[in-house]
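Worked example 4.2. Below are the chains of a multi-component assembly; read each line carefully before continuing.
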Amino acid sequence: MGVNKAIQSIRIPQIVEAAVEIIAEKGIKEATLDAVAKKAGLSKGGLIHYFPTKKDLIEAAVKGFFARIFERGKEIRDNIDDPYEQLASFTWLYDRNDPDYFRGYRMFFEIMTIASADEEYRQIFHQWVNGWVELLKASIEKGVERGDFEVENPEEAAKTISAIYQGVASRWFLDPENHSDEWARETVRNLIKFIVSKK
Amino acid sequence: MGVNKAIQSIRIPQIVEAAVEIIAEKGIKEATLDAVAKKAGLSKGGLIHYFPTKKDLIEAAVKGFFARIFERGKEIRDNIDDPYEQLASFTWLYDRNDPDYFRGYRMFFEIMTIASADEEYRQIFHQWVNGWVELLKASIEKGVERGDFEVENPEEAAKTISAIYQGVASRWFLDPENHSDEWARETVRNLIKFIVSKK
DNA sequence: CGGTTTTTAAACTAATTGGTCGGTTTTTTG
DNA sequence: CAAAAAACCGACCAATTAGTTTAAAAACCG
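Applying the procedure described above to all four chains together yields the following structure tokens:
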């Protein structure tokens, strides 16, 4: 009796998508339930039916967003064979024409800011970072096995590369005037090469 | 008649300081005028007398904060002679016991998030980045002159080092579980060494 | 001191918004 | 088909808060 799985499997992604959109537009605090409901094509009452509180809604949006970006990264990497090119494959993040460009960075900054003061979100961020580090580590280990790389501690190297991606991303997004796509991509590629290269 | 300069020169820094404190605590959106007024030791009416709108108050807090951190960085660097040590001197940012530790990072994330959607704040961020890049560039040029470094384009190198500082800082602050002070400092030092070293 | 101006406090206003609630429509199920 | 459950709606409530107003207090000056 009861739950209509078919409609839920449509409504929930629909609402989450709308929430991501509104958050990117206005920020988390200013993202109102009315706005999300409207964007998702239902009423506030309807929205509340699926996500009883704003907190639930935001959490779903954050996690859904993270999962999607992570999947994209993984897929792109998995289509590449060369370990160095795998490590450099995340430069798709530095593309101002990507459909996720604005939404993605806005979400990311919002989440970081919340995480800077909220333990629960810090955990979510921690898991996100861990995911990327694992991905990078696997490529480094592959390169070491092949004899292409020389890396003492793949985990440390992966953390460093991941942090570089983030630092370059912040500058590239927030100060486009001085940080071109080229700059972002070349900077990351050079630093990765240094980190994994034979001494 | 008229403006009492003496009291203004006390009140304004007092209010700005209180605003930074409250923003770090609650975030910009949740920083209420009442809370700032209370922390600064006057009433909301008094606060409004000095800063007619919340926007004015926040802007003063942001600029005041940026100026203070920048001054600290400059002063520490200027007490060092060796160009490489100058470049590495900003690792004081990776100190969890620093009195500005929590406030500083919180402010920084808040500002970045606003800048990600607001042209005016993007300009402020741009100037901030420029300031650091200039500082770093000067040290690089000094090293090149001395014959310690080999750098084709000091400006580019400075931008890269600056971005690395930021990426490492984000990870170090948001995911302390996996990113120790040691890690942050050593990572930055190694990467700087690579960037300026003779090939 | 007396009067004038500046500064402060606190009550108030208007707008926003998360969440509630009573009810209606739609779907499922026995 | 009927009854029960789920999905959905939108008016309403209560809390919050930026900014205004008003009146008292403090500072200043001749």
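Take a moment to check your reading of the output against the notes. Chain A is about 75% helix and 0% strand. Residues 119-146 of chain A form the longest helix (28 residues).
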